Amino acid sequence: MGLTRFVLKRPVATVMALLCLLVFGISSVFNATLEQMPDTDQPMLIIMASYSGAGPEDIDELVTQPIEDQVGTIEGVKSMSSTSSENRAMIMLEYDYGTDMDDAYNDLSQSLDALSRQLPDDAETSVMEMNNNAGTTMMLSISNPSQEDLYDYVDQTVVPLLEQISSVAEVEAMGGKSEYYKIELQSDEMAQYQVTMSDVSTAMSTANLSYPSGDAVSGKLELSVSTSLEHETIEALKEVPITTSSGKIVYLEDIARVYEAEESRGGISRYNGEDTISISITKQQSSTAMDVSSEVQEVIESLEADDENLNIRIVRDSADSILSSLKDVALTLVLAAVISMIIIFIFFGDYKASLIVGSSIPTSILVSLILMTSAGFSLNIITMSGLVLGVGMMVDNSIVVLESCFRAIETEEDKGLLGYAKASLSGTNIVLQSILGSTVTTCVVFLPLVFLQGMSGQMFGSMGYVIVFCMCASFLSAITIVPLTYMAYKPQERMQAPMSRPMERIQNGYRRIMPGLLKHKAIIMIASVIIVIATYFLASGMETELMTADDTGTVSVSIETRPGLLSENADAMLTQAEEIVKGHPDVESYMLRYNNDSGTITAYLRDDRDMSTDEIVEQWETEMADLDNCTVTVEASSSMSFMSRSRGYEVILNGTDYDELQEVSNRIVAEMTARDDVMNVHSSIENTAPVVTVKVDPVLAAAEGLTASQIGSQVKQMMDGEEVTTLDVDGREVSVMAEYPEDEYRTVSQMKDIILSKPSGGYVALTDVAEIYYKDSPASISKTDKAYEITITADYTGGNVQSAIDSEVISPNLSATIKKGVNSMNRMMQEEFAALYQAIAIAVFLVFVVLSAQFESPKFSFMVMTTIPFSLIGSFGLLQITGVSISMTSILGFLILVGTVVNNGILYVDTVNQYRMTMDLKTSLIEAGATRLRPIMMTSLTTILSMIPMALAIGDSGSTTQGLAIVTIGGLSVGVAVALFILPIYYALMNGDKKRVVLDI
């Protein structure tokens, strides 16, 4: 080949080119973006709607349903789901992949604008895009024993500094207490002076203002004039005048107590059991966790330098887990390269041969890195795993060329530089067609993956490119670097190599076995087909999940408390859960965050823990099952946990009649609870609680000059109070709240004593215009495509009894109006699996096309491709043995297998065709296998053994790509036997004694 000849003639120019690759390759590593996983953007838009004071059922009827009716007809909407809860609703719209989301956003916004007049006056809506990378990037814990107003310091100093960082999208503080000025209204005095809360609110709104009043000239300057009124102290607030309905003036101190108070801000936050203020930081979508981490740490260092008592702990930093994951994959990459070189030494017995093939590895990796960064790909687990896969495959071409060069030098009389140069050139040319065919075959396999849409395309498209880069680079290395270094190093194949004698015995044994096998072709063919069919039955019963979650050593305990549970009772229950977490010896630290009836305890486990993460999860599930007034979910936390399978049983019921659906759900829960084979049975509607409903009579209210909105506003003011103004106190913004005493309107009986003020003057009792009663209400109402939805979950006490529960409990309770639904994760899994299976089918077709073109015969192409279904025996078998489920990564392994397992078949069939020019069919079949036994075993072993570190799931993120490695290892292992023992049978059956005719024109 001209390129090989050029390299052999111009070694210095070649070395300079390699030096450039080294420099640019290293530079590309430092300039690459580091991420945990590739960016994935789901075509989803989220509508957030708020309607203050409304319960879940009112939200569903007044807000959610009108929005669903309006937006459900928008073109391109694939599915719609909603959750209605107290004061708010969330409607998620899923679009088809490929939809222009900017146009979709505009269409949705216009549709909501047209709907605004049909919604309640106080209802507000907003649209936001789905961002899979919007999770917490960093979590901080802040404490300062010497500072009493810590929350105010954090809220007004720390948070603004963090928000100024360009890579930060959102900063949220939780926990701690904040000082505020409390105006405690006295009901008797207010009644005496005929003052309402509205009067107080109006007076306070004008008690602290600055109003522009024109311009004034001073000398040569024109100055702006403003009129201001400021009250910065409690004593000043007491003197605020209030005009009563009769026109009299009273002062605030006449009808209220004014004093400084404290209030909890943002719920409960504790770190290792100590009260703290926690800060969650979310990155911008266009930024990386590495950017956020470095800039946030600079701010922390600056703040701690200003106050030695300030203690800011970094509880969680995504950048650390990213670096740890990439280091694990890099270690796997190095191990794969070392293993490949050891295999070569074992077979050739010459360290120079190992170095020759080993030199092609960094060259191919550097070329791949340059192409990766040029294409805009980040360094993440998926792309780095592509490099690991590439290491095993990229040495295949080099091994075949090197082995051919060893064969070629045997025919050269000159054993000097010229002889090795000729051997390098002729050895490369002999196998050029084979390695080109195998390279192209592997590359075309990934073409469907590159063009895939959906989650799988976004997740693995970059890996497809990386492997194609690796294969192209390895082909160039095999026809340039290997011949050049072979000529330069002059390696000698050692007769005493560790594998020389074993290989000789294996070859002789192969020659003895094959004649017997060729005599029983029909039996072997039928038996092999039966085994393949049995394998597919084995695969049908295996567990499936979208993605295998990585083990980050973090456990998340999600707690949903009963709606309306008093804060002191919720805190006591949270303390019990904390004690369970704190008492575990494998827990290094933990963080509690709780607000609005839900919270999370995140436990960070020790690296040298005695129990696995899954074992700890199971233990805590059992220990926390008896906690009262709450639903507890314990799961291993990871970047892929939202795509991994649930650990227990889950069923979704849907229907159009919510009351009927509730009744059926409660019946199913009762039947499941009575069974011995399940435990921890929970329903998504179990956290119901009685709510107090104030039902306004519109006729009676109108007679008093009141509307339902005015009544609701006054009741809310009396129950919760109202922020009437804010003051600037010593540079701090202090809230001023007007509230009634805590024990004044706390009970339902006290609510019945509420007196409302009428716009026209005078008063009316709340009970004269409204009815007050109890009503059970769910914490939230869920729907999918307008059908109500209830989810029931449980854990198995023994083996998987899902089929028994489905047939004995679920099916008898289903009807024409109550059906079993499919959750979004299962639906996504079905879609992504179907897309990957389609990619595999296209890959098989492309391989057939390439092989047919290479052999100029569809028949030979079909022969080689018989290795594909047989290799699945090893893949499914090893998955079953290791207990690894079928996921997107394991299916990707099948795709890779299509392109790699045929390489041995290509080499074998190509050799048989060459031998048939001078030998009979039987001898050709046997000698081709014996001759190519060593390169087939070498290339297969390097690929298989180099992937063992990945199959062992080294590091926290190793389990994500473990399935891919196991599928490839199992398939290639069986593929070697198929190429050497089954393929000769099929060749003999399909080709007979006909010799191939090649036109010499």
From TrEMBL:
Segments passing through the bilayer: 329-349, 361-382, 388-409, 430-451, 463-489, 522-539, 833-853, 860-879, 891-912, 933-952, 964-989
Alphabetized UniProt keyword annotations: Membrane, Transmembrane, Transmembrane helix
Keyword check for Metal-binding: no
A cellular component term, taken from the record's GO annotations: plasma membrane
GO molecular function, one term: xenobiotic transmembrane transporter activity
Keyword Transmembrane attributed: yes
Any matching Pfam family: ACR_tran
InterPro entries, per the entry: AcrB_DN_DC_subdom, Acrflvin-R
Protein name: Hydrophobic/amphiphilic exporter-1, HAE1 family
Source organism (scientific name): Enterocloster clostridioformis
